[in-house]
TrEMBL record:
The keyword Transmembrane helix applies. GO terms for cellular component: endoplasmic reticulum membrane. SMART domains: acidPPc. Residues 95-219 form the Phosphatidic acid phosphatase type 2/haloperoxidase domain. This is Phosphatidic acid phosphatase (PAP2) family protein. It comes from Artemisia annua (Sweet wormwood). The lineage of its organism: Eukaryota, Viridiplantae, Streptophyta, Embryophyta, Tracheophyta. It comes from the Eukaryota.
Length: 404
C-alpha cells in the first residue's frame, strides 16, 4: 500500500520522529531524564576516581604512546579516511554497512552523552593525556558513554561477522582466534581510555553495553537496510527527510559540546553514501565488482585509485562547503528564516539576519519558537554529504574513465 507513491512505512516512520520531536520539546524530556540519571552517574564517576589513579600509577612513555595510538586508530577521523578506501577496494557492502552503522552509533552515543551531560574524570587529580587535536576536541564532550569503546565494539564486531560470513569458514579454531582478537582489541581500547584519563569506569561499561546492544540490533536489520539502500523505493527523498528531522531530534546539552557537530557531519556522510549508492549501485557497487588483491584489481591499480580519489574528494569537500556557504544564507533570507553563524560565515557571526522572522515557513513549522538557526549546521551537513557522494559516485566514475 502506498500514500502518494510513498511507501506507508516511510510516512509512518518520519511522522513518528516528528511526533517525538514535538512531544519531547513540549514535555522537556531531556531535562527530566537528566535530572534522574545525572546524579547517579556522577556518583559513580567520583567513586571510580581511585581506580583511575591506581591505573595511572603505572604510567610510562611506552604505554602513553601505545594507548594514544590505539585511540587514534579507532577515532572518527581515522574511520572517515578508511571508509573511502574500503569502497574503492571493491568491498562495497561492507563499506556502506560500516558507514551507516558508524552514523547510527554516533547519533545514539552522542544523544546519550548530551542527555546525561555527565562530566569526564576530574583533572586534577586525574591526569588527562590529549596529544592530538582530535583528542583535545573529544575532551570537550561529555563522558558517558565512551564513544571509542562503543564504536570499537560495533565496528570490529560487524567486521568479524562480515569476515566469517564472507570466507564461509567453519573452522572453530579460526573463529575462536578471531573472536579472541576482537575481544582483546576492545579491552585494550577501553582500558586505554581509562589510562589516558579520558573516561571513568562507568563510561567504559556504558559504551560496552550500549555497543553490544546496537551491534545485536544492527545484525538483525542490516540486510533489510542494505536491500532498501540498493534497490528500495523513494530512497533518496526519504533519506533527505530523515537527515533533516534527525538534526532536530537531538537533545540540548547543559553546555554546548562538539557532539552535535559530529552527529551533523556523519548524518551528512550517511546521506551522501545512500544517495550515491542508490544511483550507481548497478555500475560500481554490486557484489561482482573487482576486489583488491585479485587479478581484476591488483595492488598497483588500487594505489592509483587512492592517488586519484583522495585529492578528488578533498576538492569536492572544499567546493561543497563554499557552495553551501553561498547558497544557504540566500535561501534562508528568501524564506524569511532568521539565521546566524558560529564560524563559517563571518557576516552572520553573533548577528542574526533578523531579530524576528516573519516568513511563512518559519511560522508554520514545529521549530518556529527559535529566534534564529545556526546556518553552520546546514553547511556542515551539505559539505559532508558532498564528500560522501563523491566517494561512491563521482570518484568511481573517474576510475572508470581512467580504467582504474
Amino acid at each position: 500500500m502506498e500514500t502518494l507513491m510513498i511507501p506507508t512505512w516511510q510516512v509512518s516512520f518520519l511522522c513518528g520522529i516528528l511526533t517525538w520531536i514535538i512531544m519531547s520539546s513540549m514535555l522537556n524530556l531531556t531535562r527530566m531524564i537528566r535530572s534522574l540519571i545525572q546524579p547517579w552517574v556522577e556518583s559513580y564517576i567520583v567513586s571510580g576516581t581511585p581506580v583511575i589513579l591506581h591505573i595511572q600509577k603505572y604510567q610510562h612513555s611506552v604505554l602513553d604512546g601505545l594507548f594514544t595510538g590505539l585511540s587514534c586508530v579507532v577515532s572518527v577521523p581515522f574511520y572517515t579516511g578508511f571508509l573511502p578506501l574500503l569502497f574503492w577496494s571493491g568491498h562495497g557492502k561492507l563499506a556502506r554497512q560500516m558507514t551507516l552503522l558508524m552514523a547510527f552509533c554516533d547519533y545514539i552515543g552522542n544523544c546519550i552523552k548530551d542527555v546525561v551531560s555527565a562530566p569526564r574524570p576530574k583533572s586534577p587529580p586525574v591526569r588527562i593525556l590529549t596529544v592530538t587535536e582530535d583528542e583535545k576536541e573529544n575532551a570537550l564532550e561529555y563522558g558517558l558513554p565512551s564513544s571509542h569503546t562503543l564504536n570499537t565494539v560495533c565496528l570490529s564486531g560487524y567486521l568479524l561477522h562480515y569476515v566469517l560470513s564472507y570466507n564461509g569458514t567453519s573452522d572453530p579454531s579460526f573463529q575462536l582466534a578471531a573472536f579472541a582478537f576482537v575481544c582483546l582489541f576492545v579491552g585494550l581500547i577501553g582500558f586505554g581510555r581509562i589510562y589516558l584519563g579520558m573516561h571513568s569506569v562507568v563510561d567504559i561499561i556504558g559504551g560496552l553495553v550500549l555497543g553490544l546492544a546496537i551491534l545485536q540490533f544492527w545484525l538483525c536489520i542490516h540486510e533489510h537496510v542494505d536491500n532498501f539502500v540498493t534497490s528500495g523505493q523513494n530512497v533518496t527523498s526519504f533519506w533527505v527527510a530523515l537527515s533533516f528531522l534527525l538534526l532536530f531530534a537531538y537533545p540540548t546539552p547543559e553546555i554546548p559540546t562538539p557532539s552535535f557537530e559530529y552527529h551533523t557531519a556523519f548524518t551528512g556522510v550517511a546521506l551522501g553514501i545512500v544517495s550515491g549508492v542508490q544511483q550507481t549501485y548497478d555500475q560500481f557497487h554490486h557484489e561482482h565488482v573487482a576486489r583488491v588483491f585479485t587479478s581484476q584489481l591488483p595492488v598497483a591499480t588500487f594505489a592509483g585509485r587512492i592517488m586519484v580519489g583522495i585529492p578528488t574528494i578533498l576538492l569536492v569537500k572544499f567546493c561543497s562547503k563554499a557552495l553551501a556557504k553561498w547558497f544557504l544564507p540566500i535561501t534562508a533570507n528568501a524564506l524569511g528564516i532568521s539565521i546566524r553563524s558560529s564560524g563559517y560565515v563571518p557576516a552572520l557571526i553573533a548577528s542574526p539576519t533578523a531579530k524576528k522572522s516573519n516568513g511563512y515557513l518559519q511560522k508554520i513549522l514545529f521549530f518556529s519558537t527559535q529566534d534564529s538557526f545556526d546556518v553552520d549546521t546546514g553547511i556542515r551537513l551539505l559539505q559532508y554529504a558532498g564528500l560522501a557522494w563523491s566517494v561512491v559516485d563521482l570518484v568511481p566514475s573517474i576510475f572508470s574513465q581512467l580504467n582504474l
